[in-house]
Design brief:
Blueprint lengths: L3 E3 L9 E3 L4 E6 L15 E7 L8 H10 L4 E2 L2 E6 L5 H20 L13 H19 L8
Antiparallel strand pairs: 1-2, 3-4, 4-6, 5-6
């Protein structure tokens, strides 16, 4: 297995290379595509990484991943499963892509906070005029009053 490379992006300006030794791969029979029972292979791939023990990540990156992916972690271990392809090689590649996407997303900084703004005078005026037009339209639908 090769090292996993995360390209530079938000939160990882220099990119990150995670050593292949930090990953654990397990294989099992896939329930998806692959033929009948006799002809199946162990095509399902489970790729795991222990975030707390990963030497390729800095302490800040480790904390950010643990905080952002806490709902996906089992202890400190992040596991990705791929079984959509018939081939183990393709499932391995897909599992690595999913792991890279998860880690890249977890390392990204939070979006900037939204600045509150007031509606413009023109938008307030247009909203009031629209309400008045709608009210007048509805008032024409009333029953005529008998004197």
């Amino acid at each position: 297995m090769k090292d996993l490379t995360l390209a530079p992006g938000p939160g990882i300006p220099g990119g990150v290379v995670i050593a292949a030794a930090d990953f654990t791969e397990q294989f099992a029979k896939s329930s998806g595509p692959g033929g009948q029972g006799v002809n199946t292979t162990d095509s399902k791939v489970q790729l795991s990484i222990d975030i707390a023990e990963c030497a390729s990540l800095s302490d800040a990156q480790r904390r950010r991943i643990l905080r952002n992916l806490e709902h996906r972690l089992h202890g400190n271990v992040l596991t990705v499963t791929a079984s959509t392809q018939r081939s183990q090689v393709r499932n391995r590649a897909e599992a690595r892509e999913r792991m890279a996407a998860l880690l890249r997303e977890a390392l990204a900084p939070p979006p900037p906070t939204r600045r509150k703004t007031k509606p413009t005078r023109g938008s307030v005026r247009r909203r009031r005029e629209a309400k008045k037009r709608h009210s007048e339209l509805k008032s024409t639908r009333k029953r005529p009053q008998i004197p």
